[in-house]
Specification:
The complex is a heterodimer of chains A (about 325) and B (about 650). By secondary structure, chain A is an alpha+beta fold. Chain A has helices at about 1-25, 175-185, 190, 215-220, 225-235, 255-270, 295-310, and strands at about 40-45, 50-55, 70-75, 80-85, 90-95, 100-105, 110-115, 120-125, 140-145. In chain A, strands 3-9-8-5-6 form a five-stranded mixed beta sheet, with no helix packed on it. Chain A has a four-stranded mixed beta sheet with strand order 2-1-4-7, with no helix packed on it. The longest helix of chain A has 23 residues, at about 1-25. Chain A is elongated, with a radius of gyration of 26 Å. Chain B folds into three domains: about 45-145, Immunoglobulin-like (Sandwich), CATH 2.60.40; about 190-315 and about 325-440, no CATH class; about 445-650, no CATH class. In chain B, strands 3-11-10-5-6-7-8 form a seven-stranded mixed beta sheet. In chain B, strands 2-1-4-9 form a four-stranded mixed beta sheet. The longest helix of chain B is centred in the last third of the chain and has 33 residues, at about 490-520. The radius of gyration of chain B is 26 Å and the shape is globular. Chains A and B meet through helix 1 and strand 4 of A and helix 6 and helix 12 of B.
C-alpha cells in the first residue's frame, strides 16, 4: 500500500502544481502592477467584436462572449503601461495624442507600450490595420483626469455591424439607396460621420478633421438641385460617363465628369492624410484603398449617395 | 536478430523498387528535353480568409513572373516555397511588403515582386501571418511546367504496379498457411531474449504506470491550456503538440514501429482504470469479481450488439466531419479530450476492463487496423504449450498481473488488432511463453470482418478528403468545413454528406465491383465468394493508407514545426518565453522538398499493398494464375488511388 500511496502522490502532486502555476502566472486582466503614479493595463484585440478589451480572452470564452471596448482611466501625470496582445489576427494599436504606436500586434507576440499622461482630457485610441468586418469600430478612450477630479465617462463605442438584424443589402437598383447601405456596411460612417456630415477628429492631419461627404455635389461643381438630379439619373443609366457622346443638359458637364472621376480614384486608391506638424504623430485616420474591397459600380453608388446628401438652398 | 528464415520475402520487393527507380529516371531524362517556351507573366493574387484567388496558376520553368498581391479582409502573408519570397499583404493598401526569408533583412515596401520560376514542379504559396482559425491551411499552388515530379510519380505508380504483378508471376510459388505466424516464411525475433534489460523493464509492475503518468500530466496541462490559454490554434500547445507533433509521430513512428504502443501509454483511460482497479501499480486479486462501485466497478459485460467496430466507425467519422474545427480550436480539442477522460471513467465504473478502449474510443478502430502493419507483436512463443495450459493467467489474471485488460486471449493472438501492449500477459504467464517479437512490416494480413473492412475504406477515403479540404487550395471547401465560424450550414451538409457517402458507400461499392470483376478473372477452378475477395483484399488499403497518411502528415509537420517550438516556450499563448523560442518567426522546414518525400512514400505504400495482396491471393487460390487474376482489379484500384493522391500532392 505504501507503493500505491506513493504512486498516487506522483499523480496528484504534479496536477496540483500545474494548476497552481497556471493560476499564479495566469493572464493579468485587471490593472495590477499599479504603483504610485503608475497604471498598467492589459489589452487584447478581438477582431470578431472589433474591440481592444480589458477582459481575459481565452480558448473558452472567445467563441461566445461579447467583448466590450476598454476605456482606460488614468490620473494626469501617471506613467501608463499598456500590454497588448491579439486573440486572433494582426491588429495595430495607435494612440496618436501621446505618440504611442502605431504598433503591429501579431497573434502570439505581446508588445508593451508606455507613455506619460501629461495632459488631461479624453483621447481616442485606434486599431489602424484593417482586421475584418468591425475594424472601423475598433476604437476606445483613454480618459486622463487631473488629480482629485471626477473622471468623465466618454460616449460608448459600439459596432452596429455586429447587430444580427443589420440586414442584407437593399433589393433595389437605385444607386443612392445602395450607396446609403454601403456607407454603413463598409464602415465609411465611422470616419466620415453620419450622413456624411464629417466632424470626426484626425489628430495632427493638415485638415484636422476627416472630410465630410454631404458637400460632394458642390465639390464636383454641380450647379443646382436639378443638375444634381439629372446627374444622378445619368450615372444610374450610364456606368461609363466618358463614353457619352452627347453631353446632357448639365452645367460645366466636362468638369463635373472629371471631378467625379477624381473622387472615384480617391476611393479606389485611398489618400494619405498629411501631417500638420512634421515632428508630430502620424494622423491615425488614413483613407484606405478600396479598389479590391468594393466593386466599380459600388463606388458609383457611394458617390451618387453623397451627391444626393447635399442640402440645396432654395433659389 | 537477423533474418533466419527464407529471404525470398525480402528479395521480392527489389524488382518493384528497381522498376520504380528506372521509370522515375527515364521520366526525369525525358522531361529535361521537354521544351517549354520562356515568357514574361503578370500574375495578380487576391488573398482572403482563407485562400487565394487564383488558387492555382501555371508558369513555365524560367519564366519571368511579375506578381502583385492584394488582401480583401485582414492582414495575410504570402510565402512562396522554393523561391525565397515572403510577403505581408495589408487590406486597403496598394502594394505590399516583401522580404527574403533566407536573409535576416526586414520587409521592404513594393508594388510588385519579380522572380524567375525555378525548377519544374509544384510549389505552394501559404499564408505567413496568423490570419484567423484556418490560417495554417490557407494555401495556393504554383505549377512550374513541365511538372516532372508528377509525371515521374504517375509513371512510377504504373511501374510499381506492373512490376509487382511481374514479380508475382515469376516468383517461386509458395502457398502460405492461413495467417501464418513465425517459423517458415517470415522471420521473427524475440526482443525479450535479445535484451534482458527490456525484459526486466516490461515485467516490472510499475512499467505501465511510469510510461502513462507523464502523459497524464501532459494531458492535464494541455486541457487547462486549451480552456484558459490563447484561442489561437497555432499559439496554443494543445493544438501544436497534439495535432501537429503527436499525430505525425503516431502515423510515421508509433504505429509502424510499435503498433498500438500508444495504447500502452495513453492517458485517457488512466483515471477510469485507476478507480476500477483501486490500484495504480499493484494487483488486487478478486477486484474483477466486484459487482459494486464500492469495490471498483460493476464489471458488466459490454452489450454484444455494440461490440463490433461499427460504433467506433461511426464515432470516428462523426469526429472527422468536424475535424477542421476540432484541429483549429484549442477549447474544442480540450473539451473532446476531457470528455473522453470522463466517459472513460464512467465506462470503467460500469463495464469490465478496457471496454471503453475496445468498444468506444474512436481512435481504437483505425489504430487496431493499422497496427497490423507494425514491426512488433506480442505472441506466444510456443502455441502448443498454451494449448496444454490450464492456468490461463493471461486471461483471468494472477497474483502478479491483471488478466488481459483488452478482453482478448493473449495466448491465441494471431493479429495485432486488439492488443494494447500493456505487458500484463507477459507478467502473468507462468511459463514465460508470451513475448514481444520483432517481425517484417505488414505481417498480419487477415481481415475477415465487414466492420474492419469498412474502417479501411473510411481511412483511405478520409486521407483523400483531408488532402482536399485541409491541404488543398480551395477556399470554398475550407469554408464549408469551417461551419462554426462561416455559418454556411448548407455547405457543411454537402461536405459531410460527401465524406460520409464516399467512405461508407462509394468506396466500398467500387471495391465490391472490383471483387465482382476479380472473381471471373481468377477463372473457375476454385470458387471464392465475391464477398470474401471484397473483405480479404480490403487489407491492401492498410499499407497504402498508412503511407498515404504519412504523406499527408509530412507537410503538416514540416510547414508548422516552428509553431511547435514557439508554443513549447509559450504553451498558453500568454507571452511566456521558457526556452527563448517564443518570438521566433514562422519558418517552414524545406517545404519545397515535401513532394519528393511524398512520392516515394506513396510508391512504397503501393508496392507493399500489392505484395501483401499477392500473399492474400496465394492464401485464397491454389493456382498462381487464378490468384494473380483475382488481384488485378484491386491492384489497379490501388494504383488509381495512388495517382489521385499524387495528383493532389504533386500534380
Amino acid at each position: 500500500m505504501v507503493k500505491e500511496r506513493l504512486a498516487a502522490l506522483v499523480v496528484v502532486v504534479p496536477i496540483v502544481v500545474i494548476a497552481a502555476v497556471v493560476v499564479r502566472f495566469g493572464p493579468v486582466t485587471a490593472p495590477s502592477d499599479n504603483g504610485p503614479g503608475k497604471k498598467v493595463f492589459y489589452l487584447t484585440g478581438v477582431a470578431a467584436d472589433g474591440v481592444w478589451t480589458l477582459s481575459d480572452v481565452n480558448g473558452l470564452n472567445y467563441w461566445w462572449k461579447h467583448f466590450e471596448p476598454a476605456t482606460l482611466h488614468v490620473t494626469e501625470g501617471d506613467w501608463v503601461e499598456i500590454n497588448l496582445r491579439s486573440a486572433d489576427l494582426v491588429h495595430c494599436f495607435y494612440l496618436p495624442d501621446f505618440s504611442v504606436g502605431p504598433v503591429d500586434i501579431e497573434p502570439g507576440h505581446s508588445r508593451t507600450v508606455s507613455f506619460r499622461a501629461s495632459s488631461s482630457g479624453v483621447f481616442q485610441y485606434y486599431c489602424t490595420s484593417m482586421c475584418g468586418h468591425c475594424h472601423f469600430y475598433m476604437r476606445g478612450w483613454v480618459v486622463v483626469t487631473p488629480e482629485g477630479e471626477e473622471p468623465v465617462e466618454p460616449p460608448a463605442i459600439g459596432c452596429p455591424l455586429c447587430v444580427p438584424d443589420y440586414g442584407p443589402p437593399p433589393e433595389t437598383d437605385r444607386l443612392a439607396e445602395l450607396g446609403a447601405y454601403l456607407y454603413l456596411q463598409k464602415g465609411c460612417i465611422t470616419c466620415h460621420g453620419p450622413e456624411g456630415r464629417g466632424g470626426i477628429d484626425n489628430p495632427n492631419s493638415t485638415k484636422a478633421m476627416v472630410p465630410d461627404h454631404c458637400t460632394t455635389a458642390q465639390k464636383i461643381f454641380l450647379a443646382s438641385h436639378e443638375d444634381a438630379d439629372a446627374f444622378i439619373e445619368l450615372v444610374q443609366r450610364e456606368p461609363d460617363l466618358t463614353a457619352i457622346d452627347e453631353p446632357p443638359d448639365i452645367e460645366r458637364f466636362p468638369i463635373v465628369v472629371a471631378r467625379f472621376a477624381n473622387a472615384e480614384e480617391i476611393i479606389r486608391t485611398g489618400r494619405y492624410s498629411a501631417k500638420l506638424e512634421p515632428e508630430g504623430p502620424e494622423p491615425p485616420l488614413q483613407m484606405p484603398a478600396w479598389k479590391y474591397l468594393v466593386e466599380e459600380r459600388e463606388i458609383d453608388a457611394l458617390l451618387v449617395y453623397f451627391v444626393s446628401l447635399y442640402q440645396w438652398e432654395e433659389g | 536478430m537477423h533474418a533466419t528464415g527464407n529471404m525470398n520475402q525480402a528479395a521480392s520487393y527489389w524488382p518493384v523498387a528497381v522498376v520504380a527507380v528506372v521509370c522515375t529516371a527515364v521520366m526525369l531524362v525525358l522531361a529535361v528535353h521537354d521544351d517549354v517556351p520562356v515568357t514574361e507573366r503578370e500574375i495578380s493574387i487576391v488573398a482572403r480568409q482563407w485562400g487565394y484567388e487564383p488558387h492555382r496558376f501555371s508558369v513555365n520553368t524560367g519564366d519571368a513572373v511579375e506578381l502583385s498581391l492584394v488582401s480583401l479582409d485582414v492582414v495575410h502573408g504570402f510565402y512562396l516555397e522554393g523561391h525565397d519570397i515572403e510577403a505581408e499583404i495589408r487590406p486597403g493598401k496598394i502594394g505590399f511588403r516583401v522580404r527574403r526569408p533566407s536573409t535576416d533583412e526586414d520587409f521592404g515596401e513594393v508594388e510588385t515582386i519579380r522572380f524567375v520560376a525555378g525548377l519544374p514542379g509544384k510549389y505552394r504559396y501559404r499564408c505567413a501571418v496568423t490570419c484567423g482559425t484556418l490560417h495554417p491551411f490557407m494555401q495556393g499552388e504554383m505549377i512550374v511546367r513541365p511538372n516532372v515530379a508528377y509525371r515521374a510519380g504517375v509513371v512510377g505508380t504504373c511501374g510499381v504496379t506492373l512490376s509487382a504483378f511481374v514479380v508475382m508471376l515469376v516468383h517461386p510459388w509458395r502457398r502460405r498457411r492461413r495467417n501464418e505466424t513465425g517459423g517458415k516464411g517470415s522471420w521473427r525475433a524475440d526482443l525479450l531474449t535479445v535484451s534482458d534489460r527490456l525484459k526486466w523493464m516490461v515485467t516490472r509492475r510499475w512499467f505501465q504506470f511510469v510510461v502513462v503518468v507523464p502523459n497524464v500530466l501532459i494531458l492535464f496541462f494541455f486541457i487547462v491550456a486549451g480552456f484558459v490559454g490563447s484561442p489561437i490554434g497555432n499559439r496554443n500547445i494543445i493544438i501544436t503538440v497534439v495535432w501537429i507533433l503527436w499525430w505525425f509521430l503516431l502515423i510515421t513512428v508509433l504505429v509502424p514501429l510499435g503498433g498500438r504502443v500508444w495504447c500502452m501509454m495513453c492517458p485517457l483511460p488512466f483515471f477510469g482504470e485507476w478507480f476500477a482497479r483501486r490500484r495504480l501499480v499493484g494487483v488486487r486479486p478478486g477486484a474483477e469479481k466486484s459487482k459494486s462501485l464500492k469495490t471498483g466497478s460493476l464489471n458488466r459485460t459490454w452489450p454484444r450488439k455494440l461490440s463490433g467496430m461499427w460504433v467506433q466507425n461511426i464515432l470516428f467519422l462523426t469526429m472527422c466531419s468536424v475535424s477542421t474545427i476540432l484541429v483549429t480550436r484549442p477549447s474544442l480539442t480540450a473539451a473532446v479530450l476531457a470528455g473522453m477522460l470522463v466517459v472513460a471513467v464512467a465506462v470503467h465504473a460500469v463495464f469490465r476492463r478496457r471496454s471503453f478502449c475496445r468498444y468506444l474510443c474512436p481512435l481504437n478502430a483505425w489504430m487496431g487496423l493499422y497496427s497490423m502493419t507494425a514491426v512488433t507483436e506480442i505472441r506466444s512463443k510456443d502455441p502448443s504449450l498454451c494449448e496444454d495450459c490450464h492456468d490461463r493467467s493471461c486471461v483471468v489474471g494472477s497474483d502478479g498481473a491483471w488478466g488481459c485488460p483488452w478482453l482478448v486471449n493473449p495466448s491465441k493472438l494471431d493479429r495485432n488488432n486488439h492488443c494494447g501492449l500493456c505487458m500484463e500477459c507477459i507478467k502473468a504467464c507462468p511459463n514465460e511463453n508470451l513475448t514481444v517479437r520483432a517481425r517484417p512490416l505488414c505481417s498480419d494480413t487477415l481481415i475477415s470482418r465487414y466492420d474492419e473492412a469498412w474502417m479501411a475504406f473510411i481511412m483511405i477515403t478520409l486521407v483523400i478528403a483531408y488532402s482536399i479540404t485541409l491541404l488543398g487550395p480551395w477556399a470554398t471547401v475550407k469554408d464549408w468545413a469551417n461551419v462554426s465560424e462561416v455559418g454556411n450550414w448548407g455547405g457543411f451538409a454537402i461536405h459531410s454528406a460527401v465524406v460520409w457517402f464516399a467512405s461508407l458507400v462509394a468506396m466500398p461499392a467500387i471495391w465490391y465491383a472490383a471483387a465482382m470483376l476479380g472473381r471471373p478473372l481468377a477463372g473457375s477452378e476454385t470458387e471464392v465468394k465475391t464477398s470474401d475477395l471484397f473483405v480479404r483484399y480490403a487489407y491492401v488499403l492498410i499499407p497504402l493508407g498508412l503511407a498515404a497518411w504519412a504523406a499527408f502528415s509530412l507537410p503538416l509537420i514540416m510547414v508548422n514545426f516552428s509553431h511547435v517550438t514557439s508554443s513549447l516556450s509559450d504553451p498558453l499563448g500568454w507571452g511566456w518565453d521558457l526556452f527563448g523560442t517564443a518570438d521566433s518567426r514562422w519558418s517552414p522546414l524545406w517545404p519545397e522538398w515535401i513532394p519528393y518525400l511524398q512520392i516515394p512514400l506513396l510508391l512504397l505504400g503501393l508496392g507493399a499493398a500489392l505484395m501483401r495482396g499477392g500473399a492474400i491471393a496465394r492464401d485464397l487460390y491454389p493456382s498462381r494464375r487464378a490468384a494473380i487474376g483475382s488481384l488485378v482489379p484491386h491492384g489497379v484500384l490501388c494504383s488509381v488511388i495512388t495517382i489521385v493522391l499524387l495528383r493532389l500532392y504533386v500534380g
